[in-house]
Amino acid sequence: MNTLSYKTISANDKSVKRDWYIVDAENKTLGRLTSRIAYVLRGKNKAYYTPHVDCGDYVVVVNAGKVRFTGKKWTEKVYIRHTGYPGGQRFSTPKSVAAKKPEWMIEEAVKHMLPKTSLGRKMFKKLFVYAGSEHPHKSQNPKPFNF
Description:
Blueprint: E1 20-24, H1 30-42, E2 58-62, H2 73-76, E3 79-82, E4 89-92, H3 94-100, H4 103-113, H5 118-124, E5 127-129, E6 143-144
Parallel strand pairs: 1-2, 1-6, 2-5
Antiparallel strand pairs: 3-4
Helix pairs in contact: 1-4
């Protein structure tokens, strides 16, 4: 008997059901929080996960300014970026970034955990990060995301 009794089902844009989740980042460790967020954005929490299809859900993160770091990372960790000009390398610590734009730390960590392709950019657009506890996505009725 050379026939299969089953057929592998691949997800597509029509079969994917997207949910909305809300995550409170207050007193959560940055790396552990962002790895779970990236997991949901990719859709790996679903039974029909398909690597070449965007199966992920929408994630709203509130209280991004109250995220915490372990050890001395708050003052000793260094974010490096480049302006594109010669000698344009810039350095900053989480303490200085949190004073200006606290959402950036979570966005940057999640972005580096997603695929570096057009599919990864599509997944990243489903992430919404806010420094305070207010967000404009109440009408989507986001479910609390439990770790």
